[in-house]
Amino acid sequence: MRRDVPSVVVRFGCEEQAAVTRVLSSGRVVQGEEVAAFEEEFADLVEGRPCVAVNSGTSALHLGLLAAGVGPGDDVVVPSFSFAATANAVAITGARPVFADIDPLTFCLDVEAVRAAITPRTVGVMAVHLYGQPAGVGALRALTEQLGLLLVEDACQAHGASSSGTPAGAIGDLAAFSFYATKNMTTGEGGMVVCADEALARRVRLLRNQGMEQRYRNEIVGLNNRMTDIAAAIGRVQLDRLTLWNAARDAVAKRYDQELRGVGTPAVAPGVTHAYHQYTIRTAHRELLRAHLQDHGVGAEVYYPVPIHRLPAYDAGARLDHTELAAREVLSLPIRPTLTDDDVSHVIATVNQFRESTHG
């Protein structure tokens, strides 16, 4: 009998349903008590830093950059090996994303590549904690402090990750998390801006709410990027489960590390706690392996097949050798916390069977 192991399954339980019902019964559904409580509770994940809930991870990046003063005439160094929102958030402020290459082991920004990409216009560096692994934040923090640059954490995939004991989101000058449906925890759709100080957080709050703290007292030009209380209520339930779910992901990753054959397994940098939003392997036979997995009911996805600098929206023409190779070789295996032992065994056996069939 065929076993199906999809890569992504989004489920909400009775507690999430009860939380939504509670909000609907209250009659207060936008940026009320639930949002405030969610912000306060999420702050425990990032060493108590001020948190501002918004309607998406992209909005979190965008508003964080705007609040920090990034705009026309500025450059921000970003990786090309990421989802397009990383660069889009920079471009939509009027600034220019400048693409730098990655470390081939961690898939995150390479500090020397960042150094080489810095221009006289550079005001910041956006470190993407790709797949749930914090970027080389120690070296990047040292570089940005030395040059007086902003360090932005794109932590949209790194809920609960850490580097040298410091949580993702509590390292840079500001950080952004996403609560899209496939993330380690979700609000259905939503985001969080984490700020190093209250002054920056207040500016983000103004920006998300048409530039006003008091109704009809618009202090600055702003947007409507508010989070709903419905989303926040779901997020509070999910946040309570994050530690347990991340531990389940880590257990699956450990089995993959130990038992997979014939593929490159993820390298975890020293001192890093990986959140394993994705478990991403490397293989020169990516499309053949992916087809083999799909034939045996195993969902496997490619994040990301086209580097941002090659997208029509950018077409930057940069030479990023490690980025280009990774885009051709990466494949993410199922690692959601609801996988059973039998599911994991099936994934491992299917990958290893491919190796045996191709290597004899």
What general outline do the C-alpha atoms trace?
A: globular
Q: Point out poorly predicted stretches.
A: none
End-to-end separation: 26 Å
**Mind telling me which CATH architecture of the largest domain this is?**
3-Layer(aba) Sandwich
DSSP helical segment count:
11
CATH class of the largest domain equals Alpha Beta
- Summarize the amount of helix as a percent range: 25-40%
Query: What structural class is derived from the secondary structure elements?
Result: alpha/beta
The domain count comes to 2
Would you report the number of β strands? Answer: 12
Strand share of the residues?
5-15%
**Integer average pLDDT:** 96
Q: Which fold name fills CATH's third level, the topology of the largest domain? A: Aspartate Aminotransferase, domain 2
SSE order: HHEHEHEHEHEEEEEHHEEHHEH
Largest sheet: 7 strands, mixed
Which strand order spans the largest sheet, edge to edge or round the barrel?
1-9-8-5-4-2-3
Gyration radius (Cα, Å) is: 21 Å
CATH superfamily of the largest domain: Type I PLP-dependent aspartate aminotransferase-like (Major domain)
Describe, in plain words, how this protein is organized in 3D.
With 360 residues, this protein is α/β, with parallel strands linked by helices. It folds into 2 domains: 14-100 and 107-236, Type I PLP-dependent aspartate aminotransferase-like (Major domain) (Aspartate Aminotransferase, domain 2), CATH 3.40.640; 242-359, Aspartate Aminotransferase, domain 1 (Alpha-Beta Complex). It has 11 helices and 12 strands. The chain has helices at 14-26, 33-43, 57-67, 85-91, 111-117, 137-147, 198-208, 229-259, 286-295, 321-329, 341-359; strands at residues 51-54, 75-79, 96-100, 122-128, 150-154, 162-163, 166-167, 174-178, 191-195, 272-273, 279-282, 330-333. The strands form 3 sheets. A 7-stranded mixed β-sheet has the order 1-9-8-5-4-2-3, sandwiched between helices. The chain has a 3-stranded antiparallel β-sheet with strand order 7-6-10, with no helix packed on it. A two-stranded antiparallel ribbon has the order 11-12. Strand 6 and strand 7 (166-167) form a beta hairpin. Helix 1 (14-26) packs antiparallel against helix 8. The longest helix has 31 residues, at 229-259. The radius of gyration is 21 Å and the shape is globular. The model has no long low-confidence stretch (mean pLDDT 96).
